[in-house]
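Good morning C.,

I know you're traveling, so I'll keep this short. The sequence:
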Amino acid sequence: MPDTETSAAEMAAHRANNTVPTDAEMAAFNKMIIDDFRANNGKVTVDPFKGAPLVLVHHVGAKSGKERIAPLAYDIDGDNVIIIASKGGTPENPAWFHNLVANPDTKIELGPDVIEVTAEPLTEGEERARLYQQMADKMPNFHEYQKNTDRLIPVVVLHRK
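The tokens, ready to paste straight into the viewer:
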């Protein structure tokens, strides 16, 4: 398992310097978060996500067909789990978003539970705006991410099956 202090420090340095981590740095960081999530029954105990509401979203590569897992912040709306495809406010959507568009039937790990879901991307409209606002009001970094990009950041509704 990667050194949690090093991984967290590397990510903090990227945020402070407004730089993008390498693919290898992101993979190591995500593995650390996923391992911690699973070791602690769905709770994250390491910075910078200590205590944050995180869900593990399984997704299948649109081109590769490989299964991947993304640890993401989430919110609940009724019976649905809501995630935001912010990628920190970069100009492009995250790879997991494209994968869920191509392969919407998947599963998530929410706390200790594995739940089958269908992903519904919302790229415009009142429902997208409402859900984005709801989550950003709880996690203000999402307000900042939208300010940092010209794209309208999509919301993904994960409907339980």
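Safe travels,
E.
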